[in-house]
Amino acid sequence: MKDKLTSICDFQGGSQPPKAEWSFENEEGYIRMLQIRDFTQSDRVTPEFIKLTDTTKTCEKDDILIARYGASIGKILTGLSGAYNVAIMKTIPDTAKISKKYLYYYLKSPYFQNSILNVGSRAAQAGFNKEDLAKLDINCPNLDEQNNIICILEKVEKLIVNRKQQLADLDNLIKSRFVEMFGDPQENSMEWQETTIGDSCYYVKDGPHVSPDYVENGEGIPFISGRNIIKGYIDWSTAKYVSENDYKTFIKKCNPQKGDILYSKGGTTGIAKYVDTDIKFANWVHLAVLKFDDNLNGIFFENMLNSYYCYQQSQQLTKGIANRDLVLGSMKQISFYVPPIELQNQFATFVQQVDKLKVVSS
Hints:
By secondary structure, the protein is α+β, with helices and mostly antiparallel strands. The protein folds into 2 domains: 139 residues, Alpha-Beta Complex (Adenine-n6-DNA-methyltransferase TaqI, Chain A, domain 2), CATH 3.90.220; 198 residues, Alpha-Beta Complex (Adenine-n6-DNA-methyltransferase TaqI, Chain A, domain 2). It is 35% helix and 21% strand. It contains 12 helices and 21 strands. The protein has a 4-stranded antiparallel sheet. It has a 4-stranded mixed sheet with strand order 4-3-8-5. Strands 12-20-17-18 form a 4-stranded antiparallel sheet. 33% of the residues are buried. The model has no long low-confidence stretch (mean pLDDT 90).
């Protein structure tokens, strides 16, 4: 039985008090202010708080929320309680008709995610509103059938979680090897040569600042944004596609190639990925492309930029709240150190060996 999504679930946008009223201390009468990065980068975020008022929009830990804007559009967020900002929308399901867990899996389904991405692609600043959700349908069986479906999906999800933990353990092995070889980037105890992105990269550019006319999958060239940069890899499965002519126009402004670094600069900022593929693609404004000299190994550079030291710099330099942007001029200020290239190459070889283990254990 199909229903209109908004007939069984209401949606409520967040609130946005002036930044001057925020606090890093949980004072009396204050409540934690949740932003998208509090859910997606919880291990790197310092909690912030706002004064609780009659207009503050709040959520409970088991509420399901949706990221509304930017590179994170469509991400399903849950597990934290507090207030939430305008970049987030809270779901308010009619639990007599639909369980929260069933709604959660629906919102993560390709049907919903593709619909939201198509809505968001109509504007340079990707986003959706409640009216857009009113156009969507949901297959909503009775609650007993919903529970049967949930049981199946939970088993699948458990397998996925176990696999992700295996990959996380291998990623931690790489991080440990990085510190063992080069020391803590924040301390630079080995006194390596210090530099900045601006000084070490001869090319720091972002993609077009307009949304192109997309073509069907398989009929054009991949066009990616910050949401396609996942920890350790480029997610081609959610890539958009542009025509060959648009591709040729876009790479005149910014031309990503094998051996470059992609660096997220809009929405979720400060995530780097070394381009290790010959696949031809273009990038949106939310991704910067870094080209660098021979004194840097790309795999080492990726791991350095993703270190806590560089990531914290990127967050301090990122401007905006709902529309977060790490502008190129600020990006160039991010500092790091450069060990001898021989050591960088040794580390890169180690990373490649670990990556082979990831494939073997798949």
